[in-house]
Amino acid sequence: MSSIAHNHYPKMVWRDGVRSLWNPIHKKTLKNRPEERVRLRIIEALVEAGWSRHRISTEEALRSREQKTRRTDIICYDQEFNPKILVECKAERVPISAGVAEQTARYNRAVNAPYLLMSNGLTDCWYRIPGQGKPDRLESVPSLLDIPAQPPPRDYTYWKERGFTGKKTTDSTLRNWLTSVLNSLWNPNRGEIRYINFSNSPSELPMEHYFRIFQLNQGRVALGIQNTPFGGTRLLAVINRENQNVGLIDLNLDLVATETSPNATVYSETKTQNFDLHAHAPFKLDAEPDPETISKLPAHLDALFDELV
Fold this sequence. Notes:
The protein is of the alpha+beta class. It has two domains: 12-138, tt1808, chain A; 156-308, no CATH class. Helices cover 23% and strands 31% of the residues. The chain has seven helices and 18 strands. It has helices at residues 34-48, 98-111, 156-161, 172-185, 253-257, 291-295, 297-308, and strands at 12-15, 18-23, 28-30, 56-58, 61-63, 69-71, 74-77, 83-89, 115-119, 124-128, 136-138, 192-197, 208-216, 219-227, 233-241, 244-252, 264-268, 272-275. The longest helix has 15 residues, at 34-48. It is elongated. The termini are far apart. The relative contact order is 0.10.
């Protein structure tokens, strides 16, 4: 079944110019690893579903029969602090296989939780462990979690805490525009979203975050909105043609909002050029952008790349 973490993103912070994760349970930063991102997304979903963060534990040490120390990903406790759900998290690229189920079952011999959840952030597999007999695989989320049918609208603070928008982005129109665009385009129910690290980025900005992938007639556009280590907000459009990344448009949205020029850069194999977005495209940061305008944004940026290059 679709993961309960489907509509959630982990909290992120910058530490020494590196994007790190924020663990709300232990209140500390963590290395930005794929499995850790999934674990934090699951925690976000559990809290939104009504589970108290004070009854969620991570990385509890377990001693196996071989005297090896293993650590659980997540344990959810009931109000009497009895284990209720044992969660095993894998990176998104790792399928939930029989081997994962066997690993979780081994861990549960020490935990003795009546519910097991295995997740890679895309797909969940639930089991109920009866007092006697074979574990029951569940076809839906158990009733002890109150999962909303639709994700609630996220406010600007939500997106800022998750690394999409900058803490120094103060223009109210831009903040409203970003909130509308992110709520519209970064809903996983509306298209493919992947965490991508563009290690060969031509920009000085570390390009590592959740990108929405758009299929267009002549190729694809990976659209990203992310904050910078300095508190600003950038919109990134990676242009892909015939399965090759051929260019990048980098918009400094804080400069776009104040109509400061230049406010954008285009990168290609043949050139790097700073430019004024307003001179090339009717780009309006309306406080309440029209949904049709939002949906056309990737195609407009793709066409702008062709115009500039």
